[in-house]
Task: structure prediction
Amino acid sequence: MKHLVLALDTMGGDFGPRVIVPASLEALDLCPRLVCLLVGNPSMIRSVLKKFNSKYINRLTIIPSKSVISDNDRPSQAIRVSKDTSMRIALELIKSGNAQACVSAGNTGALMGLSKLVLKPINGIDRPALTTFLPHQNKGKTVILDLGANIACSGSMLVQFAIMGTVLSEQIVGIGNPKVALLNIGSEESKGLDNIRQASKILHTISSIRYIGYIEANDLLAGKTDVIVCDGFIGNITLKTMEGVIRVVLSVFQKSEEKNTIYCYVIEHIKHWFSKIFFKKFIQLNPDRYNGAYLVGLHNTVIKSHGGANQHAFTKAIIQAVHSVERRIPEKIADRLSQMLSYQNNYY
Amino acid sequence: MKHLVLALDTMGGDFGPRVIVPASLEALDLCPRLVCLLVGNPSMIRSVLKKFNSKYINRLTIIPSKSVISDNDRPSQAIRVSKDTSMRIALELIKSGNAQACVSAGNTGALMGLSKLVLKPINGIDRPALTTFLPHQNKGKTVILDLGANIACSGSMLVQFAIMGTVLSEQIVGIGNPKVALLNIGSEESKGLDNIRQASKILHTISSIRYIGYIEANDLLAGKTDVIVCDGFIGNITLKTMEGVIRVVLSVFQKSEEKNTIYCYVIEHIKHWFSKIFFKKFIQLNPDRYNGAYLVGLHNTVIKSHGGANQHAFTKAIIQAVHSVERRIPEKIADRLSQMLSYQNNYY
Result:
């Protein structure tokens, strides 16, 4: 059985090795092919590993790093002095051929900048984008990008996101000729910000993209489109707004302030039973379940985990990376893009 | 009993007089002091009124208008040729002293521009903002603005919104020394767009504002702050994202694809019972219930209804206008602002 090697930035995110090391053990249990390179402070990693006494220790290697890029660091500055950081070393392991993908819960801007610097974007892409798959009401999935890698985007960057989103929808969700929409505050062409209107004009001229116009945020989960394109600021706000609302919804099922009577016991049971029906529909909107956003537009797989991810959530992000390598997603995006670009010169 | 006179733009929104005329009858039933001036196409209004044969007809006056500003019109263009439109005439009725407030479900940009032109902003305010009150997890309410009146905002505009939000939280929600936060994609000072960082710097220097820094979108409903400030594009996207998620949540309780067996009958009853518990918590996040956003920063009350509002939702918007007039909200904002400004010269 051929190994699949992932480099994990164990120092990134709110909890570092405390969460990421046990998550790697959980992932090793789930994927027999997986080998993990744990990049970080060796003594911190070892002290967590000791607690677990895992049988998968032979599929783990500790790669020492000296420093960490914190969430407070300005990406441009952090990248300049990134040489000995866990994030940089994890990415360099891909470049040197020692790992096939990387997972990090660290500083989003730095991860995006370093990935671009170390791994290089695919031909035709200026800047990689963060993307995920939103479950929608019609039981399918919508590709949404960018989720925060690029705070301010030009019209042509949004067009590139539309192309990458199309490829992801085709290759991962399995949609033939997927519909693409730009997120905006109205459906009329005159609405919104300049970059969105500019992207709309260009997209209307690209025959290989099935552009359907603007979509409003109240239709994000309605399944009206297969790909939703927005800048990283809007994407991040939108996803976190959903997360906040879903957390409030889930809290209804989790909390109980009632006293312990037989009546309450029955109610708790009905709540539990109902929450099962509910979860069936919302399982993938629960942030613990959908954790792991693809950084697309690079020659290799880089997965960004939520900074506050717990163990199970980080495991999900590792599994995403495994799937991306197994399905050869970056290669497929590059192939499809080069086809599109050969038909579509001077499209932006 | 002294009358309270509202001018209603009956031609705005997706449904026009069909929804707005019955909504006015519903509001007249709820508020004995209310008198409505129905601005619009007289024959269309009369044909709807005929169907209802209401006993409140003596508290209604039809004010003829010749044209309508559509949602597709560019605000700047629409305003130039607005002379005979229902929206303009409704606002002029306030200016001439014939009405105390206006409610419209029409083009947001045009309503904002025309209100500014006809009614003038309060001293110290460059541009009015759309605002509403979000219920939060700690059973209070958060003032959020702007929701779409100003798509692009400078740092100093965001500061003005922070001041207006503070006054609204004090005067309407009843919070003493309310906390104010800027919506951003991280909590660190270096995060986000230039205008947000600039506003943050200014807000730190204003002692009469209790500025607590950035808030992320997953905490919108967490009750961590009393006022949330953002530009109109972000505000609109955020509110509509919430609306979309809530609609999906509510659909779980409303739809049933099961067949009609005794088992399903029992399930439907439990769903109904559970939805009651659920609604109790979420009633104010249901778009039909929270309809009606204040356009604040003007000398008079202007309420913007959701374009797709149904009858009950539009009635809610009328009731908002009644409350604003009764509580003298615009006057209180102006008073508080002039106090703040006299202490705080050159703050932006």
User: Anything to note?
Assistant: Chain A touches chain B through 49 residues (CB under 8 Å).
